[in-house]
Specification:
With 293 residues, the chain is mainly beta. A 6-stranded mixed beta sheet has the order 11-19-18-13-14-15, with no helix packed on it. Strands 2-9-8-4-5 form a 5-stranded mixed beta sheet, with no helix packed on it. Strand 14 and strand 15 form a beta hairpin. The structure holds 2-acetamido-2-deoxy-beta-D-glucopyranose.
Length: 293
């Protein structure tokens, strides 16, 4: 054991020496990060792309610039800068001036690029750059992420349920949710009811985007005892059956289709949704003979 001591001392000496140098001389290696792409978004929807910088020298508050290149061309188009008001390329000045394209500072070392209404021509590679404030150039001064803007092809077409159902009967809620598959996106469908009595909208059940079922709080028991059940869909048709109905099921039903992207970070992101009214259902009470006995 004793023999190892000098070696360990030498090692820890070296470590403290290196650590000392890094404190004194500012041994940093700048890292600029953006999300791992590609980011898939639907035309007409908002988008936010974050960028941060760490391990830099100089002032805490850092400057940022965004540039983009369209897939077909190599030329860089300047978008927006934290310090240069006349930075934007002529083709973007109007969108920047109107605030449709903006940059928010979230922290000294983090910003987000926002486009409130993304267009298909915005598809391309987005590069976040940070001008050097380091005493020596070391590390990465930019990072790039691909944005793919797809057209909105989400279609939600419900079939109107029978408008009159007698108590203890079934309500069948059929909803066709489709999209054109050009990029790996996922679908979910959610049924809801606006109750006639309370006029409140309650979620009944959601299916997807990974095939999982989640029930609204007031429907959990009925789903587990099988009186609310999902019928496996064909060709985009999702069917929900509510059995043994009571007058409290009286209301206007709706279905919502949602298209999702599965980000490289593992996060599921709603990229577009559409809600359609299915129609009103009136539940007619059964006049029970038993009550007279
Ligand atoms: C569902 O909607 C899609 C797109 O509108 C359509 O092509 C398909 O035929 C529909 N399916 C059914 C079963 O109605």
């Amino acid at each position: 054991m004793a023999r190892n001591w000098p070696i360990m001392n030498l090692k820890s000496c070296l470590i403290s020496l290196l650590f000392g140098i890094s404190l004194l001389g500012g041994v940093y290696s700048r890292i600029v990060s953006v999300p791992v792409g590609p980011l898939i978004r639907v035309e007409g929807q908002p988008i936010s792309i974050r960028c941060d910088v760490t391990d830099y020298g100089g002032p805490d508050e850092q400057d940022f610039e965004w540039v983009m290149t369209r897939a077909q061309t190599d030329s860089q188009i300047k978008i927006i800068s934290t310090f240069d008001n006349s930075y934007s390329h002529a083709s973007l000045t109007r969108r920047v001036a109107s605030g449709e394209i903006s940059m928010n500072r979230l922290k000294d070392n983090e910003v987000e690029l926002k486009i409130s209404d993304v267009k298909q021509i915005d598809s391309g590679f987005y590069t976040c750059q940070t001008p050097s404030t380091d005493s020596e150039i070391r590390g990465n001064y930019e990072a790039r992420v691909q944005l793919i803007v797809i057209p909105n092809t989400l279609k939600v077409s419900p079939t109107a349920p029978s408008p009159l159902v007698s108590e203890s009967g079934d309500i069948v809620l059929s909803c066709n949710v489709t999209r054109e598959l050009t990029q790996p996106t996922y679908l979910s469908v959610t049924w809801s009811i606006r109750k006639s009595k309370t006029l409140e909208t309650e979620e009944i059940l959601s299916f997807g985007p990974q095939g999982e079922v989640t029930t609204g709080p007031k429907y959990t028991r009925r789903y587990s005892d099988g009186s609310v059940r999902l019928v496996p869909g064909r060709n985009g048709v999702f069917e929900l059956v509510i059995a043994k109905v009571t007058t409290s099921d009286d209301g206007t039903y709706g279905c919502t289709g949602t298209e999702w992207a599965h980000e490289s970070s593992g996060q599921w992101l709603q990229i577009v949704e559409s809600t359609k009214e299915m129609g009103p259902v009136a539940v007619t009470p059964i006049i029970s003979d038993n009550s007279d006995q």
